[in-house]
Amino acid sequence: MMQLDLTRIRELLSEYGIPSAAIGVLHDGRITEFAVGVKDVSTGEPATTDTVYQLGSITKTFTALAFMQFVDEGKIGLDDPIRDYLPDFSVADPQVTAEVTARHLLNHTHGIEEAFGDPGEDADVYARMVANITDAPQVFPLGETHGYSTALGYALLARLMEVLDGRPWDDLVRERLLTPMGLSDTSTRHEQVDPDRAATGHLLRSLDEGPIHTPLPHLPRSYGPAGNFAATLRDLLAVAHVFLNNGEAPNGTRIVSPAAIQEMTTSRVPVPDPYMFGPEWALGLIVCDWSGHTVYATDGSTVGQNARLRILPGTGTAIALLANGGPRETFYQKVFHEILTTLDAPILPDLPKPDPDLVLDLSRYEGVYERPGTRYVVHTEAGRLHLTLALDPMHAQFLGKPDHLRYELLPISETHFLMPPTDPLEDPQTVAIYDFRDGPARYLHTNCRVHPRAGR
User: Fold this and answer.
1) What is residue 399's predicted lDDT score, i.e. its pLDDT?
2) Between the CA of residue 48 and those of 53, 82, 349, what are the distances in Å?
3) Best CA proximity match to 364, nearest among 299, 417, 321, 314
4) Chain-wide mean pLDDT for the chain?
5) How far is residue 267 from each of residues 180, 260, 263, 411, measured CA to CA in Å?
6) How many CB atoms lie within 10 A of CB 27?
7) Hey, which residues are catalytic here?
8) 368 - beta bridge partners?
9) Does the pLDDT value for residue 456 go beyond 80?
10) For a FRET experiment, which of 9, 220, 390, 419 has its CA 20 to 30 Å from that of 355?
11) Angle at CA 47, nearest 5°, toward 46 and 48?
12) 410-411 and 404-408: which strand pairing?
């Protein structure tokens, strides 16, 4: 059985102000699980390997698997226009209305702004989201670049499945996916989670204060197929088992065909910022390159909980980490490094170093890049490039941060920059500023999300 230095994990939890972490390893068909810390700082109750954590956007991988079942059954094609099945679907761009496909939704190249308003908390939430986006603009033209869709893309997939199946999303995904896989500890809505087993989300404003309860214990129902699942380690690793075993669950049930797994892992689009998570996006998965080894990743964050899953097909290994604090990329990287070195497996690559000899025309990068709720200003000071992020005032006040955060951008290449942290509670990030076909850059891409130049 694999051993893990739990003292080291406790040290890391303290260093990062994270109350608990549950860590699981699937290797050679066997699962090893660990849990360290407390699931709620106010009660001090210890986390266990049976504690249920929120998965955030790892939910998207479950949803993608469920959708591929319909593809396997011949009920829909990945490249069929979704309007063939949703005749009431329309957005502001008539070309997107006519041509957007499930593949665009799965790999985040549809470009539709998340302008779905408040569709409510009732069972018809995904039908309402379709009805609410008739005026939704494009962030970018269909298929032009990758730009992460937090909720809308996978909500449209859920609505497609509701129409094809005839049942509400929560019912069909349980009957078609969760129950056949034996995932009795996975929930699709927060009301389904046993409160005695649930981890409580925490945020960190300062290490001196320590972690505090999140003000948002769960995401809205509109995020359901994109971010509302909660699960234990073992249930999450069952999903990894499906990818490592050509579509078969640990209980022997075939979930999707080997062809579906092949399609999900090989149908890829490039990610403009290849360093932070991975250089390509597949269907419900990120594709990473760890020193020449292909690794599949899926990550998730809610407000106060975080989840990470890495699948290493070359070694038949998967690693999962669930935490009720963060997100801190360097925390998960250090934990995974401890595990991977023990297994003699490929390890995570470091972020690239800046190139001090690179000479750039900084004027091509300067400008405002924005989406509703997010505004980046790239500007030059003393011959060096900087980025200023405008925070929502209420968010800034709660976290005790200024409403404008300023960072330096250190060039890695003509289109990629390292953004060092200015706060000890932050990690280094990378930023892509790219597409110079008109002269100035068209897009800024960071944390998987794309922001177009204002006024273009």
Assistant:
1) 78
2) 11, 43, 30
3) 417
4) 96
5) 26, 10, 6, 30
6) 19
7) 57
8) 377
9) no
10) 390
11) 115
12) unpaired
